């Protein structure tokens, strides 16, 4: 009798454990719904916060330009090694792609860029750039620190992940080529959605801004050489003056937007560089000019227009012109379009994590971001995380006085981590697992009851 009871007891117990194991996801759903706030608390804890700040400062002191982020990449890999996170390297020269979770689908990616800008820092502080003429003036040092912070939290909670989080540390955002190369080298393999966060001083501290649809414009560059025939400035009839031709080009380019574009469609053509001549009494042989063009739609037509205006205006003035649409390897990027479903998920996540009032509906900006390559390849969502406090002392991006409000780092880390967890959870509840849970849950509950009843009467 006792042996029979014992057998029944252990059999029931084992069955229960088995069912508990396979209905794991239904149990975790409860945990995950509380996760967002937990991630913010964790990210703000002195240990994690100080660690993120120290990483950000190390990178800030040693800024590296696009595709040269060797030390930054090394730092990232050594931190991932310490966490026990597996990664792929090199991807696009210096890029790193880390993996946290089951190693199984679904795969959701979080992205940070690593590169600095070729400009001199004018902020005097303890961790000022140690490299003359190079500076992190776009906050990419902060982006790396935030994603590493998220990685640490996700790795500690990896048993809660119902899929795989892919960490994308990307080179060369500022020259618009890094994301493209990462994709070419397989960074998005298996990945079905991607999220990116950019620090900004245009949004109040602790708030985040995004929108569904077109957020940032397609961006491209041009450089043109207008060639004439130089000579004495007082004997113009023996020259072909490229200064007049180039001036005409600059003015005519304005009409592409003012006369040829629907006034309700936003486009920009800016000539930002004009170089040529170096004497008062000499007409130069050539003038070099360059600038940028931006559009949400009809980008290639605008490019074509720029090329045509430059060459034809040069011809009017008997000059020749050559036009380069990818000068100095500066690639063009498509417009950045946020996926509607991901936008909704993101907005809900922000509501849970920071409160609904912390979400700001963004307005489109004519700036460009090469995250758009990712969002073009798969559904993507890009958002801005605010850093501006009541002192209003934070300068704009790409300013030599730019500073990162380091108190924003935990917000970015928590947003990354929460978004990944939520995406995988939503995916899971829509996926086949939910069916399994529905059939197993009542069975599991029944056996629990049986077990308790049995135990009471034993
Ligand atoms: C422009 O190009 C044509 C054809 O190559 C050449 O004949 C002409 O001399 C060039 N004009 C100038 C001003 O360079
Ligand atoms: Zn930038
Ligand atoms: Zn940037």
UniProtKB/TrEMBL annotation:
Peptidase M20 dimerisation domain segment(s): 218-309
Position of the signal peptide: 1-25
Family to which the UniProt record says this protein belongs: Belongs to the peptidase M20 family.
SUPFAM superfamilies reported for this sequence: Bacterial exopeptidase dimerisation domain, Zn-dependent exopeptidases
Species whose genome carries this gene: Brassica carinata (Ethiopian mustard)
Amino-acid positions noted as binding Mn(2+) in the UniProt annotation, renumbered to this chain: 138, 140, 174, 198, 398
Name of the molecule in the record: Peptidase M20 dimerisation domain-containing protein
One MF annotation (Gene Ontology) recorded for this entry: metal ion binding
Cofactor: Mn(2+)
